[in-house]
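Inverse folding, one chain.
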């Protein structure tokens, strides 16, 4: 049963999304891409984010946390014990950690090291439990001066235009003061003033300088859900957005040679499965003769040493428009998912980038919500994509409620999966009906360590039975089974011990 509150949210979401779509002009500018032929269900065929042992990482986790947006100190709600619980209850290995520009650079050119230290402390909490942390320069609706979060007040130019609070919040992207703040940031309106994008790039470089040697950090998400203000569609993504990304990548590489740089498309449209105009970006690392490659491409412009990852968000339009994953909406959501996958894979190929679903999520009380989450996880596995579910804030979208008791989402996210694969993954899949996890990969020279799979207690209470592979070790506490690797192709099937 949906609660009255849920129903209200749906209705508001419907109005918001339609108005926003029309405001953005995207339906006209880009148009939905047909579902076309379904891509092959295999995790192979693209580049992988690797750990220090050269193993392909299957990143699975949550964003931490929406609460950081409003917090005066910019810190998420979590304490160290919450990280311990997250690891124990979900066995995740990834977290997308929200940063706020307003906290990094509280006044022009001044960087707050106390804030960065507090972030580093939390990164350590995760690192000590085996997590990889993606530092996400987050914004919604530009910044607090215009009703959002992210940008400092000093970096918010409205030229006297106002922004009123909206419901749903996404509608605020069309408020005049917010549009102008973005236009001032991108430098797409007449008039002088500070070089705001230069400051933003400087703030990112400062974050990277601070975390350059931190092995827990996997990379930086250069901007959450970019919005073009009055410039939209490919004109925005191939123009001001691509220029900002390139400048940020170049600046970060002057202080940090190795961490991954995650880029997002303009959110409205891409989140639903529409095409993105984001062009290929250059990573100076690819031209650095000292940089390690992954053997997945040629050096130079197509360099296998480039470390740019693609991190689009996934919020299918039919759900934004008020549906759950049920009835006639289900078929529409499925079509949206197919279009999203097709577009994402196309863009990832253009960028030469591995894919991480930077966000997906929904109110877990919506009809069919759990089937949807299961379906997205399966899609991520088939694509060989990582994901960060939105979000870990206790409440109706999370695996835990306000009292930190498990919601119905928790058992769905607590799913058997490989975490690190010692070579090139070919495919991996959890078959819930047969209770079998299959993982196949090609061993690769230079990769150290075994393939690690996590077998949650709810499915593997007595551990796993391994067929077709060599068991190296089993840690009942972390529930991680390590499988031997070596040259050649490996194909392993793991079922619960009787
Ligand atoms: O879930 C978040 C909601 O509580 C906030 O009011 C809103 C505005 O800050 O942001 C929501 O989180 C969004 C995230 O920041 C960006 N992607 C979509 C998320 C869900 O709407």
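Residues assigned per position:
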């Amino acid at each position: 049963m949906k609660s009255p509150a849920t129903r209200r949210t749906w209705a508001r979401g419907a109005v918001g999304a339609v108005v926003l779509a029309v405001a953005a002009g995207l339906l006209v500018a880009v148009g939905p891409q047909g579902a076309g032929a379904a891509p092959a269900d295999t995790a192979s065929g693209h580049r992988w984010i690797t750990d220090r042992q050269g193993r392909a990482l299957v990143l699975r986790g949550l964003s931490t946390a929406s609460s950081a947006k409003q917090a005066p100190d910019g810190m998420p709600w979590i304490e160290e014990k919450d990280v311990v619980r997250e690891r124990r209850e979900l066995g995740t290995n990834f977290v997308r950690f929200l940063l706020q520009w307003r906290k990094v650079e509280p006044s022009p050119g001044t960087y707050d090291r106390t804030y960065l230290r507090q972030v580093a402390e939390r990164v350590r909490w995760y690192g000590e439990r085996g997590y990889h942390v993606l530092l996400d320069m987050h914004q919604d609706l530009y910044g607090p001066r215009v009703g959002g979060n992210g940008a400092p007040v000093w970096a918010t130019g409205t030229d006297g235009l106002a922004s009123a609070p909206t419901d749903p919040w996404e509608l605020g992207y069309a408020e005049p003061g917010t549009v102008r703040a973005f236009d001032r940031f991108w430098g797409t309106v007449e008039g002088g003033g500070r070089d705001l994008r230069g400051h933003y790039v400087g703030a990112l470089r400062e974050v990277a300088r601070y975390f350059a040697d931190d092995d827990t950090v996997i990379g930086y998400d250069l901007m959450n859900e970019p919005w073009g203000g009055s410039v939209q569609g490919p004109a925005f993504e191939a123009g001001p957005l691509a220029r900002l990304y390139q400048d940020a990548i170049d600046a970060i590489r002057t202080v940090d040679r190795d961490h991954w740089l995650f880029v997002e498309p303009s959110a409205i449209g891409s989140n639903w499965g529409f095409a993105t105009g984001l062009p290929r970006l250059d990573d100076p690392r690819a031209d650095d003769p000292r940089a390690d490659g992954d053997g997945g491409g040629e050096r130079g412009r197509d360099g296998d040493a480039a470390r740019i990852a693609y991190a689009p968000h996934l919020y299918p339009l039919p759900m934004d428009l008020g549906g759950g994953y049920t009835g006639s909406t289900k078929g529409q959501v499925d079509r949206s998912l197919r279009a999203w996958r097709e577009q994402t894979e196309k863009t990832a190929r253009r960028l030469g980038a591995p894919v991480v679903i930077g966000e997906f999520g929904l109110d877990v009380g919506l009809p069919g919500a759990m089937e949807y989450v299961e379906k997205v996880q399966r899609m991520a596995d088939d694509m060989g994509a990582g994901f960060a579910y939105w979000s870990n804030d206790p409440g109706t979208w999370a695996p835990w409620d306000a009292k930190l008791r498990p919601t119905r989402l928790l058992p769905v996210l607590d799913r058997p999966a490989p975490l690190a694969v010692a070579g090139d993954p070919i495919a991996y899949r959890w078959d819930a009906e047969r209770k079998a996890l299959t993982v196949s990969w090609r061993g690769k020279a230079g990769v150290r360590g075994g393939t690690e799979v996590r077998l949650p207690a709810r499915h593997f209470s007595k551990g796993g039975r391994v067929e077709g592979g060599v068991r190296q070790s089993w840690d009942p506490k972390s529930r991680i089974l390590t499988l031997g690797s070596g040259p050649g192709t490996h194909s392993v099937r793991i079922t619960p011990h009787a």
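The mean pLDDT is 90. The radius of gyration is 22 Å.
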